[in-house]
Amino acid sequence: MARMVVIKISSSFCFITMFSLVFTTNTTMSQPKYMFTFCNQLRDNFTSTALYESNRDTVLSNLRLRSSLASYSNATSGLNPNMVRGMFLCRGDISQTTCQDCVTTANLQIVRNCTSSDDEEAFIFYEECMVRYSDWSFFSVNEDRPYILRYAVTSAPDTVSFGLRLSEKMNELIGKVSNGSPTPYFVKDRERVIGFEGSYYMDSIVQCSPDLDQMNCTVCLRLAFQEMSGYCSQCQWAQIFTPKCLLRFETTSLGSPSIGSGSFNMKGKGIRGIVVPAVASLFVILIL
Predict the structure, then answer these.
(1) Rg of the chain's alpha carbons, rounded to an integer?
(2) 41, 103, 198, 212: which is deepest, by most CB within 10 A?
(3) What is the secondary structure of 218-272 as a DSSP string?
(4) What is the residue-wise DSSP string for 64-128?
(5) CATH number, domain at 178?
(6) Is-above-0.70 flag for pTM?
(7) Helix, strand or coil for residue 34?
C-alpha cells in the first residue's frame, strides 16, 4: 500500500534519502519497523577519534546486552573529551525478546547510518524502540527534539467528538503515568467508546524514560501530545517518539480490522536525517 512521508525540518537540516539498504541480520530475529535516523554535530570543532568510536561501540554493546533484561537502560564509557553516553527505550507494551531484537538491530544500523567524522550524537527510531548516543550528559534532561511522528491518513471512526475524547484520554493517562503507575513511567489503556458515528475501541499508551522525574515526564508528554495534535487530532492512529517519551493511540471500529497505512513527520534542528523508505512510498519534503 502506498504511504506518504512528510519531513518538516529547519533550513539547517540536511537530509539523505536511501532507496535501498542491505545488511545482514539473524533471520530468527523479529524485524523492527524502522522510522528515522538523526545524526548530529553539536560543536563546530568536533572530530570523531578512534578512541571516541571505541567508547561508542562499547556503549552500544552494553546497551544491547542490557536490552534482554529491561525496557530501558543507559551506559557510559571513557573519559572526557572522548566520553560517550548512550541509552535505549523500548515501548512498554512489547515483549522483552522484541525489545532486544529492536535494540540489537538499532545498534548495528545507527553506526552504518551516521558515518561522518562530525557525528558526535545520533538517534535511531523504530516503532518499537529508540537508541541514541552522545558526548554530552543527557541523563535526567528533558528533550523534545528531535522527534518522529507517524500517523494514519485515515480518519478516526467518530470525527464529531474524537478530538475531545482523545485529549481527555491523554490527559488522564499522563496524570497516571506521572503519579505512580504499576509499571514505572508506563501506562496502557483500552476503552470501548460509544460515539455518534459508531462504536470503537481506543487503545492508548503513554511512556517516559525512567531517568526523568515526575515533573519532566509530565512536561515531555504534554509537549509531545501538543505536537501530535497539530497534525492528527482526527487520525485513526498515531505514534510520536521523542528522546525521552512517547505517546501512541489506535482506534478500531468494532468489527473492522486496523489499517496500517500512514504518514511520517520528523522534526530536528541542526541534524542530518536519513530516511529509509519502504517500496512504493511518496515523499514530501518541507524546508522551513
Answers:
(1) 19
(2) 103
(3) HHHHHHHHHHHHHHHTTBSEEEEE-SSEEEEEEEEETT-------EEEEE-SSEE
(4) HHHTTT-SEEEEEES-TTS-EEEEEEE-TTS-HHHHHHHHHHHHHHHHHH---TT--EEEEEESS
(5) 3.30.430.20
(6) yes
(7) strand
Q: Are 45 and 122 in a shared domain? A: yes
Nearest to 72 by CA among 194, 185, 226: 185
Coil vs helix vs strand at 133: strand
168 with 279, same domain: the answer is no
Backbone angles phi, psi at 49, to 5 degrees: -110, 170
In the block, residue with C-alpha cell 504518514: 263
Judgement on whether residues 92 and 198 belong to the same structural domain of the protein: no
Q: What are phi and psi of 113, to 5 degrees?
A: -80, -35
Distance CA 149, CA 234 (A): 15
> In terms of pLDDT, which residue wins out, 139 or 253?
139
Number of domains in the chain: 2
What are the backbone dihedrals phi and psi of residue 127, each rounded to the nearest 5 degrees, phi first?
Answer: -60, -30
Q: Is the peptide bond before 243 cis (omega within 30 degrees of 0)?
A: no
C-alpha cell at 263: 504518514
Which amino acid, residue 57?
A: D
Mean pLDDT of the chain: 79
Give me the mean pLDDT over the 251-257 stretch: 72
